[in-house]
Description:
Elements: H1 3-26, H2 34-51, H3 55-61, E1 64-76, E2 78-89, E3 92-103, E4 108-119, H4 122-130, E5 134-135, E6 140-144, H5 155-158, E7 162-171, E8 182-186
Amino acid sequence: MNNSSFSRRAFALGALASVGAVAACGNGVGSRGSGQIDARVATTLQEMYRQFPNTRQLAQKSNGMLVMPLVTEAGLGLGGGYGRGALLVNNVTVDYYSMTKATGGIQIGAQQYAHVLFFMTEDALNGFRRSPGWAAGANVEYVIDDKGDSVNADTTTALSPVLAAVFGRAGLRIGATLEGSKYSRIIP
């Protein structure tokens, strides 16, 4: 390996690490306080309702919502993601959660996005709350697609126990999926 390819690789790794570190700071990593999470949750909900008015109906029909205002993902071969948010039941915060994600495969880049999980049944909400580490998988139905430009609330999604809205994406990474994400209760 020559020096120029080594220095390009070192530069790319350094740049990616810097992006991840800066993004983590904006994610509230290392900061404490439920007030900051609550403020971000309120802002995220306002923005979601403004961009996608039909999500108000989902919120009213849901038994609870997990709002993750800022999730940061980065990857170069191996990747990961982190975010913090709050679980709301009847528009009142009942618990705080972190989301972690590890990925592998062909990937490069970083992105940030917000997402809201709507628990449409009492069983789905209770299962989430009882779990020491709930993992999102194929049982999550998306109501806002990857481009974030529509709300899909047809009969199929209306009967799903957990619905997800992923929106507000920014960054240089393609795709935002919640599969493989693990949610754990935290004390902010």
